[in-house]
Amino acid sequence: MKPFTLETRPPEANGPHPSGTLPKLGVSDWILVLDDDRLASRAVGRWVKQIVGVEVRTAQTILEAECWLKCSPTPLAILTDFELGDRENGAQALERLRYLGCAAPAAVVTGAPDLALMALAESSLREAIPVISKSELPIRLRDWLEHLQLCWAVSEKVSA
Predict the structure, then answer these.
(1) Triad 83, 76, 140: Cα angle to 5°
(2) Whole-angstrom distance, CA of residue 62 vs CA of residue 10
(3) How far is CA 97 from CA 2, 61, 68, 73, in A?
(4) pLDDT by residue (tens digit) across 25-41?
(5) pLDDT value, residue 20
(6) Cα–Cα distance between 33 and 83 in angstroms, integer?
(7) Does this model's pTM top 0.70?
(8) Which helix (H) or strand (E) holds 59?
(9) Which residues are registered as beta bridge partners of 131?
(10) Is 118 left (phi over 0), alpha (psi -120 to 50) or beta?
(11) Confidence check: pLDDT of 56 > 90
């Protein structure tokens, strides 16, 4: 059995690469979990890993999430907390990640779903972003990830 690991620091966050450019990591089967609370991001990451079985990379800031996207292939999905600290929120994070060209499916996790829905409606995002209440997190997270797994399976069959 492979030991459980979570990548918690993107390469650029640890300082510049010796070559001056960021190496592209080869693994495309990964999911990004963005939460300013390190313990919460690790807990959600463990759930995601158990449900889907792919690598999970965590970020505590939007900048760290951007670093992961700059040095890695596009993730399979993004799961972000709504309240990220420093007056930033999950809608702003997704806008910035979309601006960088990341079109991965995304969901917002929050204890205040009404605020998250309002922020998403006022954002420049023109897609349906599921909002998962923390009180329903285990069940709704599993449903969302299982739905994505079906989409990935269909996508693989179509492109084969």
Answers:
(1) 55
(2) 12
(3) 31, 12, 10, 13
(4) 444 689 999 999 999 99
(5) 41
(6) 13
(7) yes
(8) strand 55-59
(9) 108
(10) alpha
(11) yes
